[in-house]
Here is the input.
Amino acid sequence: LVDQGHRISAIASLNEDQLKNLVESISGKPAVDLNPLVQSLRALDSNELDRQLRQHFALMGPLDFTQQIGLPLLHRIGELWEHGSICVASEHLLSTTLRSLMGGSLLTRSTNRHRPTILFATLPKENHEFGLLFAAMMAEAAGAHPLYLGTNLPVEEILSAVQTANAAALAISMVRPSKTHIEKDIPTIASSLPKGTLFLTGGPGSADLPPTDRVERIQDMAQLYHRIQILVHGR
Ligand code: B12
Here is the structure.
């Protein structure tokens, strides 16, 4: 799209469907055909899956890979899983392959310590990781330094890590929140975070949080990208 003259800032504000429509309107064909990936998952062909994912990643870069492959593929596999038409082993293969590809990329890319640090974590017993991982990649693309701590972190650890890293923001991903997350953990973090530290939440489960001034709920990756650009560049 950038090659076609579209501005990155304009593209980043589009949601998944708008992006897909724009790409299709230019090329006349669907953005990316996910079927070969789904086929290698069904066949548990880990080499082929890894090869295809790495090739897309190298060609697209983290931002486009997230929007055009990562998110749509997880949602497609989620639908197939719900309908019982894909086995648990396939879903796990996708998780491990995607995690090692994206986790490795995040570690090697996020080396610029002069950028504002954003700490990424999930609360205890929340093991869904990909919203968090994609959000960290988005933050890196938007100019921040993501400090990626992964899933299942006790509240005290999160708060102490924010202090140690002098983080400008904390981002918590919530997919399947418990009552404790909503009623105890999030309010505790909100009242204990240093005043100047932004508190961002995202993921489908963050919709269950009551609105407060302290916690900013981010709807999707495009909104996150913009929010972090404002944090980094003040615009
Ligand atoms: C992959 C997956 C798993 C994997 C996770 C592997 C991993 N390493 O992450 C495994 C197999 C471990 C798993 C386990 C379970 N899962 Co599961 N899982 C999924 C699946 C298929 C995909 C989730 C995913 O990664 N989506 C991709 C993310 C990126 O997309 P998203 O969540 O829609 O997020 C969007 C936005 O919210 C935003 N966003 C997300 N996070 C963040 C964070 C920030 C900071 C920001 C700004 C934005 C943002 O970005 C995305 C794009 O806009 C979903 C199905 C689905 N439809 O989502 C079920 C699903 C989430 N799982 C579900 C369930 C029930 C479970 C289990 C309880 C199953 C079981 N009985 O054991 C366990 C619980 C594990 C636990 N304790 O946390 C349910 C949750 C229902 C609910 N709301 O309660 C779902 C919806 C499936 C279903 N329909 O039943 N799961």
About this structure: The two ends are 23 Å apart (CA to CA). The first helix runs from residue 8 to 12. The mean pLDDT is 87.
